[in-house]
Every structure is written in structure tokens, then in C-alpha cells.
Automatic annotation (TrEMBL):
<dbReference type="GO" id="GO:0008168">
    <property type="term" value="F:methyltransferase activity"/>
</dbReference>
<dbReference type="InterPro" id="IPR029063">
    <property type="entry name" value="SAM-dependent_MTases_sf"/>
</dbReference>
<keyword id="KW-0489">Methyltransferase</keyword>
<protein>
    <submittedName>
        <fullName>Class I SAM-dependent methyltransferase</fullName>
        <ecNumber>2.1.1.-</ecNumber>
    </submittedName>
</protein>
<keyword id="KW-0808">Transferase</keyword>
<feature type="domain" description="Methyltransferase">
    <location>
        <begin position="48"/>
        <end position="140"/>
    </location>
</feature>
<dbReference type="InterPro" id="IPR041698">
    <property type="entry name" value="Methyltransf_25"/>
</dbReference>
<dbReference type="Pfam" id="PF13649">
    <property type="entry name" value="Methyltransf_25"/>
</dbReference>
<dbReference type="GO" id="GO:0032259">
    <property type="term" value="P:methylation"/>
</dbReference>
Amino acid sequence: MKGKEWYQADDVAEEYDAKRFSRGGRLIDRREKQAVLDAIGPVEDRSVLEIACGTGRFTVMMAERGADIVGLDISEAMLAQGRAKAHKAGVDDHVEFMRGDAARLPFPDDHFDTVVAMRFFHLAPTPRKFMAEMARVSKEQVFFDTFNDFSTRVLYNRLLPMGSHLYGRDEVHDLLDSAGLELADAEHDFVLPYGFYRKIPDAMAGQFRRLDTAIGGSSLGEKLCSVSWWNARVE
């Protein structure tokens, strides 16, 4: 099963977190969440839109910290997982999950303080259109991630169920310019790809992570990083 059909299947939604964020994947989950919080800062009383929210990992995390947040996704099965997660966390009053198309966001201009999209742009068929919509509904900030073309991810990228678009840094800058966004900050991480960490126990992942960050901290290592987080501001 490929593409949108794969992503929207009930069994994929039910197993999504367990397959990606158990074992060494827990390390990925912690690092991604920290990247979001570092970029946004205090979220209490901020209005946030998360594009392609999936099972609500980031949506619920921000709601727990006081954000008023909308999680939007194309998959009703993923949204159901997010609603259950929000209810369990007791943040139903801070979060709304809705099905929608990120290329035609059902919100007026300048509606949210911050718009977040994690694990999205590598799947986006028309990235300029999506970025333009994110910039349109944001008053201040757009935060997103990409998987990078000059990285270890190329070794297995074609084997993924939904495929994946890998970005060069010049391409990201062009994408931002086209949407009238200005890059405020960027982080580049994970020389070892996500798929590697998911295959090993959590305790072992910590050992490899120390090696990973040591390599990534070098001038060559930063260029080899497989993941980038981009913090942009509305001009």
C-alpha cells in the first residue's frame, strides 16, 4: 500500500507511535519535541496551528503547556488517535483536531501566532503551495523540518511506504523566500538516520547518540546531518 491510502489506514494509525517511537525511537521523540519547544519558546496562551499533526504527539505536548492549538491532518484515523491522547492528558479544552487540506487552510489571514509542521514537507507534493498557506495564516512564526539530500537518509529513502522528498539547503531558502518568510534560525542533527535508531534498544541508542552528536558537531558532520529544523518569521 502506497501514498495517502497507506497513511490513512486504521491499522497504520493505531501502530504509528509504537513502530516509530519505541525502542531507540524514544530518543527521536524526545529530540524532536525539544526542537519544537526550543524554537517556539513559552507557548502558554499562544494560538498555534499544527499541520499534519498525525497522532497528536506535538499537539498534545503544546496543549499541556497551555497553548490554544488546532491540529489538522488528512487522516481521520490519525486524528482519532490524537483525540484519545488529548483526552487522556486532560487537555481537551486546549486542543481541537480537524480534518483538512494543508493546501487550502480553512482559516483567515494572520489567524495564528505560530504554525508548525513536523514530518510533513518530505511528503508534500506541492511544497510552495503548502508553505504559502502556512505563511498566510501565521502572524509571527512558521516552524518546520526537512530531511536532507546530502545525508545518510538517501541509503533507504526509496524503500519508505510513502516515498520522501529530500531537500537541499538552497531549496529550503528558496521555499521560504517564495512565501515571504525570513529564516531566523536553523538546527541540523542526526548524522545517523532515524531508521537506524528505531532498530536498536533505547539504552544502546544513547551510546550511538553521543557518537552522532560528536560527529554532527564538526564542520563536515553538520553538512551530513539528515534532519534540519527551520525557524522562520513572517516578514
